[in-house]
Specification:
The protein is 39% helix and 22% strand. It has helices spanning 3-22, 39-43, 47-51, 59-62, 80-89, 102-115, 152-162, 182-185, 188-192, 201-210, 226-232, 240-247; strands spanning 70-74, 94-99, 120-124, 137-143, 163-176, 199-200, 214-224, 251-259. Strands 1, 2, 3, 4, 5, 6, 7 and 8 form an 8-stranded mixed beta sheet that branches. The longest helix has 20 residues, at 3-22. The protein binds S-adenosylmethionine. S-adenosylmethionine (SAM) binds next to helix 1 and helix 5.
């Protein structure tokens, strides 16, 4: 799998997912993507944004967003976390979504229109090369996207670059705990399902630190047991019974927090 292959396959899969959502089909429900938002949050966004939700956590619920802040959601998909953030940061704040897939951007723009959110902007681009200036964002959000990137170091360096000093990284992602079977790691089908590209939790923390972040915390929000793994690993030619012990409790939905230091020696 090379980086270009991965990006093209990811784009194709999520382009199709966006088209399905645009026709009223739900993107959810597997053990990773289901039941992420509470009733109050569900009321705050158009139904189509909820149907298009493909995250693995709820970063806006955990991120402590404040009025007037600028938020950037990496891989914003149908826009649910951008629209929720826009309400939290209010009219004096701004919520950006960044996505590389045209069909997702079209869906997100339609959802913004339906929500009547004026302080929202969806940008086309790649999370490995964020189209925003240095020190322009208070909070980086992302929901189940960084695992999809073939160049995670670059994504974290870009997140660091665009954050203001003291800015927060508040991301939901799939991470692994311990060694993962090579047949899972090498499966393109499982990469686009947000599994094969997931970083080990310690490696994630090390990469954040190497990018300059501090106060790094990774907390499991959902730990997937073998019965759940059975549903999301299916259809890839794996004998789940034979590998049950190696997958049980090894994949997690996690909330990953870190800070950009207020004083950065070499930025
Ligand atoms: C699993 S979906 C998550 C969407 C959204 N965050 C949510 O919670 O519903 C992944 C999204 O990330 C986008 N994406 C994946 N890799 C990307 C990259 N390298 N640059 C920009 N967008 C990317 C896809 O187009 C897709 O919309």
């Amino acid at each position: 799998m090379n980086k270009i292959d991965i990006k093209a396959v990811v784009q194709e899969k999520y382009g199709l997912a966006a088209l399905r959502s645009a026709h009223g089909a739900s993107s959810c429900c597997d053990p990773i993507t289901s039941n992420l938002y509470d009733q109050e949050q569900r009321r705050q966004v158009p139904e189509a944004a909820l149907l298009a939700s493909l995250g693995c956590g709820n970063p806006t619920a955990l991120a402590d967003l404040q009025p007037g802040e600028t938020v950037l959601d990496l891989g914003s998909g149908g826009g649910i976390d951008v629209l929720l953030s826009a309400r939290r940061v209010g009219p004096t704040g701004k919520a950006y979504g960044l996505d590389m897939t045209d069909e997702m951007l079209a869906l997100a723009n339609e959802n913004q229109r339906q929500a009547g959110a004026a302080n929202v902007e969806f940008l086309k681009g790649e999370i490995e090369s964020i189209p925003l200036p240095d020190h322009s964002v208070d909070v980086i959000l992302s929901n189940c996207v960084i695992n999809l990137s073939a160049d995670k170091d670059r994504v974290l360096q870009e997140a660091f670059r665009v954050l203001k000093p003291g800015g927060r990284f508040a991301v939901a992602d799939v991470v692994t705990r311990g060694e993962m079977l090579p047949e899972i790691r090498s499966s393109m089908g499982l990469w686009v399902r947000c599994l094969a590209g997931a970083l080990d939790e310690n490696e994630y923390a090390a990469k954040l630190q190497a990018s300059g972040f501090e106060e790094i915390h990774i907390e499991a929000t959902r730990i997937y047991r073998v019965e759940e793994a059975r549903s999301f690993l299916s259809g890839q030619g794996l004998d789940i019974d034979a590998i049950a012990l190696q997958v049980d409790g090894k994949f997690m939905g996690a909330f990953i927090r870190a800070l950009k230091p207020r004083i950065v020696a070499h930025d």
